[in-house]
Amino acid sequence: MTRFRSRGLSDSLTRSLMSMPALVMVAVLITVPLLLSFYFSFTDWRGSGFDANFVGIANYTRLFATPGFGRAVVVTLTIAISSTILLNLVGLGLALLLNRAGVLTSLYRSIFFLPMVLSPLIVGFLWRTLLDYGGIINQLLGSIGIPPVEFLGQPESALASVIWVIVWQSLGFNMVLYLAGLQNIPKSLIEASIVDGAGTWSTFRHVTFPMLAPVLTVNVVSVFIFNMREYDRILAVTAGGPGGSTQTLAYRVVTEAFSLGFLGRGSAYATVLMVSVAIVAGVLIYLLRRREKDVL
Amino acid sequence: MKLRPAAAIGRHVALFPFLLISLVPVYIMFISAFKTNADIQSAPLSIPADRLTLDNVISAITNPQLDIVGSFGRTIIITIGSVGLALLAGGMISYVLARSVRRSAVLLYVVLIAGILIPSQVLLIPVTRVFQFLGIDGTLFALIAYLAALHIPYVIFIYVGFIRSIPRELDEAATVDGAGAFTTYWRIIFPVLKPATAAIAIFTGLSSFNNFLDPLIILGPSGGKTVTTGIYSSVGQFNSDYGSVFGSLLVAVLPVMIAYFIMQRQFIDGLTEGSVKG
After folding, report:
1. If I label A87, which of A10, A45, A172, B110 is the partner at 20 to 30 A Cα–Cα?
2. How far B18 CA sits from the closest chain A CA (Å)?
3. pTM of structure
């Protein structure tokens, strides 16, 4: 064995070298940018050269004073919270229906999952076209006597439309996760509960739902975190409008930095987004993991 | 348990509206791509067999804004490049982390997979600066490296879990034969990781293929278009020529849809692997 070793590199050096490519990529393309983003948020950087002047917390005070910021926070949370609730409620409901749909289960599963593999931007454009004032949805509503709706023209309905598109696209994903969770519950547990005289609802409430606790954690955390960064579908469906009413924090980052050229201010938005995501992730994971221990 | 036919029928009745909501928009995109604007407006759901047209699809394919050949070519290079690089670099470090019992390795693992939480928008502003500094801004290589770096935390998350379930005796047998860690990983461990590799490739591949904002910003106006940025420039502005919009969207999603219909199970398992593991 020593004979082979002496010819090659030492084991610990080999292992360090094997880790190197990933560490360098993460350091240069994730860690350094993350720190730079934090640094730039305290500068007036406009993007030409390195002429970034330190301006202290000016970007943040300015940020908190603009109505656009508060609105972006509210829109971000509205989208994240409502899509989390809807995707989990409907996803679980569909999974319960599908769990015993027999031979058709996998067909249904494939159909519900389809939108998930499409590009969010393209799904957004598809729905923008369908929801357009003169578009197909209004055409179909008209044929059953319902007057046209301004889905994308009013702030509230535009926000609801964005949430609808997110739910439409991601539903299959959450449904499949719940379905996998349901199929992992031992049949004997459910049968025992029914033998004990528990009804369908009572079995669900006291056996099935508690057993799904780990799946619920994953579903809630992943949907919440990923929808906090929503950008593509908003751009495609409403382009942030009308009147900025569907702009999220992630949307503001891109607009401030790349459309308006205020890289310092964009970085301040980015820092707020990053900190909010970290806090939400931490709190959600802590609470839901604790809940898992309580119910299981 | 006995299956009650009434309950079974009830299930299908309850599922039916959701099935329609999932399918009808896709159906409308498909048929409208082959209809005239007049037919789309007057009878959105019907298929007028005698008036179908290829004009929408042809204009999408020949649209220089969409640049179909170039944009698909670039997107495929970016997808294969970023997935390959992430699997290569992420796989080796996963092996090292999974086989180390040191506290520092555990800590590094936790820090690395926390990277899954970071939204790309947070990194995009400074990362363009980093690429300028490296002299590779606006290149496909820069985009490939960035996407691979974004994939690495996820790759590590899946691989480390998987490698830990492989008995160490397998490594030790290779070590006795004189193989170092590098050889052991590539010859012995990597082949066993095939299901994990497939799941990661599908997840990261779709995410690279469908990505929009990263190529838009990193490639910039002169770096060439991908499928999504091409679609953005061709149908991005409000457009009431529905036929041509549906034609462009169909051309853009068709390859992914065909792949999905051939390998539904792999797609579904691949995309949910990380969450089922979690």
Report:
1. B110
2. 8
3. 0.92
